[in-house]
Amino acid sequence: MILPYLPGPPMLAPDSPRLSPPWSLRVLLAASMLLPFLAAGLFVWHDYQRSLTTASQRVDRIATIATEHALKVVDTNALVLDRMGELLRGLSWEELRAQRERIHQGLRALDQRVNQLRVLHIVEPNGDLLAISIAWPTPQVNLATRDYFRHHAEGYNGVYFGEPLVGRTSGELAFTMSRPRLSGDGRFDGVYLGSVPPAYFEQQWQTMAGTGERYIALLREDGTVLARCPPGTQPSVTPAASSLLQLARAGGTEPSWVSDANHQEWLATTRRVGQEQILVTYALPRSEILAGWRRTTAVVLAVTAAITFALSFVTWLACNRWVAAQAALQSLAGTARELREQIEKRERAEEQLAQAQRLEAMGRLTGGIAHDFNNLLTAILGTVQMLERHLGAQADDRAKRLMAAARDAVARGARLNSSLLSFARRQPLKREALDANALVTGFEPLIQRALGEAVTLRLSLSPGLPHCHADAAQLEAALLNLAINARDALPEGGEVEISTRTAWLSRADLINNEEAHPGPFTEIRMTDSGSGMEPDVLARAFEPFFTTKAPGRGTGLGLSQVFGFVRQLGGHVAIRSEPGRGTGVSLFLPLTPGTGVRVPEPQQQRQAAVVAMASATVLVAEDDAQVREMVAEMLREAGFRVLAAADGRQALELLENGEQVDVLFSDVVMPSGISGMDLARRALELHPGIGVLLASGYTGPVLGKEVPEFDILAKPYQRDVLVRRIAGLAQQARPTVA
């Protein structure tokens, strides 16, 4: 039947992995977010460096201009002092006192012609003021305590710059420029000086430096500030004088960074004014230098953010469109996969039905032939017996041999007929209550002889089995047939195991088997480590006269006889085989009527869980090859279907590829970057109902302070403990097992 297609929006299955954009779109999205800011960062850095360079050039240029201006002022004032010296040349102090008014007029004339040097003084050797340009008559003042007077009196003959003071006569703040008057023999003979108002420099500097935060100062070599701009600035908000003097002593002219008392950085340079003992310094604070840069940076970042948002939004739309397209493709692929699975399920069901019908038809045909063949054998055997009675003692040796051969042929035909009747489920059976464990144990020597010395026989019998309902002789014959087949599959020796347990079969397990009913059964399983069967051979294994053995090695009736015998009892036969993995044949025998399965004690409950979950699938993740193979073989012997993975990444690939797994059994520490904990969490995301059991060679404290979130089985572990734990988890994952 072809199902109609109903269109609808693309939807992902609940267990489908979340789609992510391809790496190309991810890289493009990251680039759209990072590259604009990277470019902006480069621009901002370049602009930062440019701002510092521009500021350095500005500081250097203004410092040079201010130094040249200060040098011109100093030279002009020095000329004025020289002119004052000419007024006094050749005259004694008695003569000078007599001409005090003339001297005052001369000083006043000089004062009016020069703006940068005012309030001209002439001081006698004892410190008394002889004349002053701004006052007449001359005030009675002694200046012997002034620093400039003391320095000249102590022998300093150059131009001296006195500290800023408020003049006693003028009342103005000013610093002085002075020179000593020397006698004919070079001794100190008085001082002549002038006052320099700091405002003169401040006006020039304001015009020169413009507006904004900056600092220009005229310093003495001892750090005394003679003039500064802006005027009245507190020392705590200007570069430290000691730092500025260090720049001067270093001898360099390149601007350097210095700090003030508030730890604010200034870009400053200090220059000497000619050969004098004064310095000019100019400094710009970092905040002023970077103010324009910060404004530009804010604009650049705002524009960059807008560009980044636009590019990221466009890329995000592209990613969403890609994810939507992939989701639609995945939805279509999932629909196609579901259709293929439905078709495959229907084909398998049809194939199983055809196989069952073929076997049923062959059974009816074989039964009819065997019935007629029995009649023929009866006639032949009766005829042979009549001949023997007829001839009696007259029969010679040749006649006796021929009749014995006929009897043997009839016996072989009877055995062959019995096999045919067994397959046709028409042979007479002696049904009785049997202890399967006791029967297997008593029949072990004969099975071992049939297997030969090269094959090792191992029994794994489950205690406390309820009695089964079967024909002891036919059951032994069936086990013998299975043993012979196992021997032929092990030409170079190997291992055969016979195990018993109680199993529950559902209606799904008994498909195409109308003789059996769902419920508890006694299972006798024989497994070998032989070469196994190809799928096409496995599909015909129960057909009568089908054999892969060489001519003369078998009739092809062994498995068909087993199949018919168990079906006639109302039981079930299952076979599992893979090339290179051996073969296992399970005989499910009905329990004796009225015999129920006892309610297990706690230990029996665990064994029942093992039996009930024997068909579950276990994913074993173990990086040690020997441990992995040992665990896988243990679980296979217990009846589980086992998938093995060498590390967490390989196990995760099996889970992501859709493998149906009931229990994950994983080592905690594994390579490839995925631990057992990580694998367990990811497995629960992919398969929420999966059971998880972890194994570790360390005890709890070694795992750390973290409380384990999964059951942990300590190594080394026993087979029974492992199987019980796996079975319990499998029973939780799949309450009913097909």
UniProtKB/TrEMBL annotation:
Residues 329-359 form a coiled coil. The chain crosses the membrane at residues 23-45, 296-318. Its EC number is 2.7.13.3. Residues 368-593 form the Histidine kinase domain. Gene3D superfamilies: 1.10.287.130, 3.40.50.2300, Histidine kinase-like ATPase, C-terminal domain, PAS domain. SUPFAM superfamilies: ATPase domain of HSP90 chaperone/DNA topoisomerase II/histidine kinase, CheY-like, Homodimeric domain of signal transducing histidine kinase. Residues 617-730 form the Response regulatory domain. The modification 4-aspartylphosphate is found at residue 667. One of its GO terms (molecular function) is phosphorelay sensor kinase activity. CDD domains: HisKA (cd00082), PDC1_DGC_like (cd12914), PDC2_DGC_like (cd12915). InterPro entries: CheY-like_superfamily, HATPase_C_sf, HATPase_dom, His_kinase_dom, HisK_dim/P_dom, HisK_dim/P_sf, Sig_transdc_His_kin-like_C, Sig_transdc_resp-reg_receiver. It catalyses: ATP + protein L-histidine = ADP + protein N-phospho-L-histidine. It is an enzyme of class 2 (transferase). Keywords: Coiled coil, Membrane, Phosphoprotein, Transmembrane, Transmembrane helix. It comes from the Bacteria. This is histidine kinase.
